[in-house]
């Protein structure tokens, strides 16, 4: 049904992936069954000049995380514990709704900031490098996220798979 004159309809990356996954699964089956490493989808959010993983720790403020997101042109950074294991995610979308009165909350340690924003720490969505593209898509769609962190058995970040990465594989 067409949108009214004062309404707009948007097509999101999630919409595109959901459409392709649900309506073209048969044609995409070989691709969906392949593991994400063999598909070349495991790429780390890195600092371009040093090729090092860009992350923050639980000791960093949310503002430090947002600064790194901006400085390295990323949409999110992983939050790591003292053992470098993945425990949470800070996304540019976590700034949504921040205003002049609430901006000071970004100075809090990142986990406190996230708990204040959402009432509890959100579950981080992750997969293994050996997981199939099908598994990754199902997690992304099921958890309603834009990215999934790729971790090893010790929860060390190996990379990230984004909706953009998935769409590129479909083309």
Report on the architecture of this protein.
The structure is a single chain. By secondary structure, this protein is of the alpha/beta class. Helices cover 34% and strands 15% of the residues. The protein is built from six helices and six strands; from the N terminus they run ααβαββαβαββα. The strands form two sheets. The chain has a three-stranded mixed β-sheet, covered by helices on one side. Strands 4-5-6 form a three-stranded mixed β-sheet. Strand 4, helix 5 and strand 5 form a beta-alpha-beta unit. Helix 1 crosses helix 6. The mean pLDDT is 89.
Defining key terms:
single chain, 171 residues, alpha/beta, 3-stranded mixed sheet
For the biggest β-sheet, the strand order reads 1-2-3
Gyration radius, rounded: 17 Å
Shape: globular
- End-to-end Cα distance: 28 Å
Tally of strands? 6
Q: What is the H/E string? A: HHEHEEHEHEEH
Contiguous runs where pLDDT drops below 50 for at least 5 residues: none
Structural class: alpha/beta
What is the number of helical segments per DSSP (H or I, 4+ residues)? 6
Kindly report the average pLDDT value: 89
**Helix percentage:** 25-40%
Question: What would a concise description of this structure say?
Answer:
By secondary structure, the chain is of the alpha/beta class. The protein is 34% helix and 15% strand. The protein has six helices and six strands; from the N terminus they run ααβαββαβαββα.
Present the secondary structure layout.
Blueprint: H1 13-23, H2 25-33, E1 56-57, H3 62-71, E2 76-80, E3 86-91, H4 110-118, E4 126-127, H5 133-143, E5 147-151, E6 157-162, H6 163-170
Parallel strand pairs: 1-2, 4-5
Antiparallel strand pairs: 2-3, 5-6
